[in-house]
Amino acid sequence: MVAALLWIALAVALAIAEAFTATLVLIMFAAGAVAAAIAAGLGAGVVVQGVTFAVVSGLSVVAMRPIIKKHMLPAIAGADETIGIKALEGAPGVALEEITQDSGLVRVEGELWTARVFDATQVIDAGERIRVIEVRGTTALVWRDEFGDVMEDQEASD
User: Fold this and answer.
1) Helix (H) or strand (E) holding 96
2) Of 68, 39, 41, which is closest to residue 52 (Cα–Cα)?
3) Taking Cα atoms as reference points, which of 65, 66, 75, 74 lies closest to residue 24?
4) pLDDT at 82
5) Tens digit of pLDDT per residue, the chain (158 long)?
6) Whole-angstrom distance, CA of residue 129 vs CA of residue 51
7) CB atoms within 10 A of CB 65
8) Which pLDDT score is estimated for 74?
9) In angstroms, rounded to a whole number, what is the distance separating the alpha carbons of residues 116 and 114?
10) 140 — phi, psi (to 5°)?
11) What SS3 state is found at 23?
């Protein structure tokens, strides 16, 4: 009975560790530990418990790994895609009003953003091209983009 409790404790510890790693490997070893706990509860010896743990863990890895890889690859492939506010960093736009270190308004990807100059010595006039350097809260920190390509619909919408 003590051996079964030790295997259960190992299974719980492995499941908790899996929550921190998210590799989906430790959970398979936790399944092996549960199987070994069942074997221990049925009165199997230590060797049988160890073999049960190894076999169930190994079979779990062999059976589940292809399924996990199949479902994780699309997620991993899209991991480089930036979404949300971070996607605006580096985006081109146009100044709708003068931009200083204190105030300004820009259009970036069809949306209006309050803006401040990234370099406090710059002043960007209305109509000039800008590039978003960083977004802090709801304010875009921008830089004059003399050579950038502002999308046609942004210039046409002014």
Assistant:
1) strand 92-97
2) 39
3) 65
4) 63
5) 899 999 999 999 999 998 888 778 899 999 999 999 999 999 999 999 999 999 999 999 999 888 877 776 655 555 556 667 777 888 999 999 999 999 999 999 889 999 999 988 889 999 999 999 999 988 999 999 877 654 444 444 44
6) 68
7) 13
8) 59
9) 7
10) -90, 130
11) coil
Angle, alpha carbons 36-41-44 (nearest 5°): 70
d(CA 131, CA 106): 10
Question: What is the H or E stretch that residue 10 is in?
Answer: helix 2-21
Distances (CA, A) of 101 to 95, 131, 138: 14, 15, 15
Please report, for residues 18, 25, 38, 51, the alpha-carbon distance to residue 64 in angstroms, rounded to integers and kept in the order given. Answer: 15, 9, 21, 19
Question: In whole angstroms, what is the distance from residue 16 CA to residue 34 CA?
Answer: 14
Cα-Cα-Cα-Cα torsion 106, 109, 113, 115, nearest 10 degrees, comes to: -50
> May I ask the CATH architecture of the domain 84-156?
Beta Barrel (2.40)
Query: Hey, where are the domains in the chain?
Result: 2-80, 84-156
